[in-house]
Design goal:
The complex is a heterodimer of chains A (360) and B (463). Chain A has 360 residues and is mainly alpha-helical. Chain A has 2 domains: 7-89, no CATH class; 106-145 and 188-341. Helices cover 67% and strands 0% of the residues of chain A. Chain A is built from 14 helices and no strands. Chain A has helices at 7-24, 33-37, 45-54, 60-63, 77-92, 96-104, 106-126, 141-170, 177-189, 212-239, 252-277, 288-311, 317-334, 342-359. In chain A, α12 packs antiparallel against α13. Chain B has 2 domains: 7-197 and 403-462, FAD/NAD(P)-binding domain (3-Layer(bba) Sandwich); 244-396, Flavocytochrome C3, Chain A, domain 1. The chains are: A mainly alpha (360), B alpha/beta (463). Chains A and B meet through α1 and α4 of A and α4 of B. The structure holds flavin-adenine dinucleotide and iron/sulfur cluster (SF4) (2 copies). The site of flavin-adenine dinucleotide has 42 residues of chain B, from α1, β3, β7, α6 and α10.
Chain lengths: 360, 463
Amino acid sequence: MSLDTSPPDLRQEARRQIEICNACRYCEGYCAVFPAMTHQKAFADGDITQLANLCHNCRGCYYACQYTEPHEFALNLPAALAEVRVESWERLIRPHGFSRLFQTNGTAIAGLLVVTLAWFFWALFAFRPESGVGFYAHLSHIVMVAIFVPVFLAPLALIAWSVRDYWREVGGGSVRLAHIWSALGAAGRMKNLSGGHGEGCNFENGDRFTDWRRVFHQLMMYGFLLCFASTSVATLMHYVLDWKAPYSLLSLPKLLGVPGGLMMVVGAFGLARLKMKADPELGARRVWKGEMAFILLLGAVAATGLGLYAVKGSGLVPTVLAIHLATVMTLFLLMPYSKMVHGFFRLAALVADAAKQDKA
Amino acid sequence: MKTWPEVFDVAIVGGGNAALCAAITAAEAGAKVVILESAPKTYRGGNSRHTRNFRCMHGGPMSVLTDSYGEDEYFEDLMLVTKGKTDEVLARMAIRQSEECLPWMERRGVRFQPSLSGTLSLSRTNAFFLGGGKALVNAYYNTAADLGVSVAYDAEVTHVHRDGNRITHLEVKIAGAPKTIKARAFVLASGGFQADLDWLARAWGPAAKNFLIRGTPYNRGVVLRDMLDQGADSVGDPTQCHAVAIDGRAPKYDGGIVTRLDCVPFSVVVNREGDRFYDEGEDVWPKRYAIWGRLVAAQPDQVAYALIDSKSIDLFMPSVFPAIKADTIEDLGRQMGLDPAHLRRTVDGFNAACQPGTFHPTQLDGLRTHGLNVPKTNWARPLDTAPFYGYQLRPGVTFTYLGLKVDTRAQVHSPDGPLTNLWAAGEIMAGSILGQGYLAGFGMTIGTVFGRIAGAEAASHVA
Ligand SMILES: Cc1cc2nc3c(=O)[nH]c(=O)nc-3n(C[C@H](O)[C@H](O)[C@H](O)COP(=O)(O)OP(=O)(O)OC[C@H]3O[C@@H](n4cnc5c(N)ncnc54)[C@H](O)[C@@H]3O)c2cc1C
Ligand code: SF4
Ligand code: SF4
């Protein structure tokens, strides 16, 4: 698919392919997309957006399809849905220009990182506190909070706004706890990357099934959640218990953070490798570089976080701290404008799907 | 190809289900095997890549199959569709062996899924392949590769060289270049001849040029013809093919499953002249779809038109191409190239013949017309609620019946006795079992059962 295909054409192309699938249904057992298709004969724009966000790009339906090129039906559903998916994030997240820039552009991500990095080096120098231990000796707690709370909350607010718009576009309706529960269950096990038979997907080794993408994705996802939990616990300890960092290796923040960080590093390495092996023609080609840069960024967040533990007490702390804080800040800033956002839309799509299945 | 041995143990002609089952079985027995597939890699797998399920006997719930499906019931189902034109010994053998095929297939990478939505009626008798036939074919090629089977794509076998009661070698065109492949045993699994329109036209008449071929363009019967020319025993009516009514806009070849249309029972079907010609509601669609290919083939220009109104548009599986849509019958006729006034008269006549009663889409509801020369005996409701929809129908050929006659060991025969190192499996010998008609899912059963037999026989011949 070429770069300049405008969104309505992307959707029309996905619709064309979905209508063929809906008359075929051979791939019904692979994932949630095909059962969701069977509820209708005609597909409104919102239906296409929903199906695109349900798709996990496992690629099973590409390799199993008797209609791929050179057949005149030219099926490549994983790519068609990936294009619509990325387009839907770019369209629903404000400001749209940012989205387009960072989704597609690895250099832009790297550029942002350099800017935040430079800023932190300056900040460490400028705001250097009189007292404090651990890394608070370099940047006081209150300054860190002042910097990171808005940088964290503003992107989340933007994402919440866009997910609300998504919900309206796909006709999500009222949410019930059971639907959220079912969606969390599907995401928690990455059910849609299991291939239906539990042997995984066709991401990296042609038509052979492997489970590595699921493994690395879950390492990344759970690793990230552990790190997030670690930071949250530390914040609570700081304010509620008045128990200040640095914490020992057996404290809760470290017990959560160290394994979480390791999982993220392994996950990032694995996902990057798989991405190199996978056929770019079966995804949204346009965003390949942006996605790759984002995986590397996640890996860098974790690696530098672990690095901070490693260099503890040495003269390297300010440098590593600056790099770590810069990666974290870039990650937060990019939450709405990078692959990171897929998690929110995916979850919304899974909840909407559970609700729709219930109604059917 | 550089590492190929001078002489293979077993050479297999074709690259679909039957070929792969034979290749895997022979390779597992230790034979050095080569597969010669005339299609390029992207189109490998013949008609097998278009399939969705196979019919499987079972004594109790097994894998995705519910309940049980015994030998006798299976055999009766077969007798019903073939009107008795069935070889009982071979048929019962295939039926009995189908039960052990399912776990055999699973161990070689084939995965099953519950009956597809819209096909619940088959959940007891037919096991559906997860991802369809191409996924099955992929799994088998991977298994074969792991067993060290050599595969040549774009490799059309043009001649099977017979010397007395033995086969000595094959003449093959690999990527256009002629090559000789020597082996000690041979399995023919190259399907029927339905993709050769000239041959179809010779057998059926010139009308066959208007037929659409539902499956691969590579099954041109080259090897079948070659064997018949060399006196191999044949079986099956050479003038017959299995054809169903499909969407007239389907590609000439390889349109596959999506081009089927399930709307006929809820339609008024007319020919090019705008006249009805057969009872659209004779029976439920799964029992009637196979006769509509012939019915349409017998109409002028081998074309027919199914008309429905908005009451019925959601009663059948979605079509791959959207229906032609109009607010009046006349306009629908115009859009489809039919005489609007004539069509109006046909529809008015039909509507007037419809009777009050309860319409029931999923069972024979006895809602029939009165006073028409061509009655509609179920689901007869007037076409009166705009918008109106239309589909063009054409005959789509699934397979041909003429084939090589084999015995219970899948061996090919000639009037002078068996050819000692030649076996056949799949569509190329299916006529040995099925004389006419077709039972959904039985093609893959035949290919799997006889492919395994042929592979085992060939391997033990060279062991
Ligand atoms: C649209 C469609 C749907 C179907 N669905 C079902 C179903 O759900 N269940 C079912 O049981 N049956 C189904 N059938 C029937 C089924 O496809 C056949 O019965 C089955 O695939 C036959 O397997 P085979 O291996 O004998 O032939 P094929 O799978 O057709 O394989 C023949 C192979 O031989 C190769 N070949 C041909 N000539 C040469 C040559 N000269 N040299 C080298 N190679 C050659 C071809 O390229 C091909 O690879 C369907 C058929 C069609 C068309
Ligand atoms: S991807 Fe191909 S095989 Fe799968 S449902 Fe769609 S058309 Fe059928
Ligand atoms: S790529 Fe995988 S998840 Fe996406 S539609 Fe195809 S089978 Fe489903």
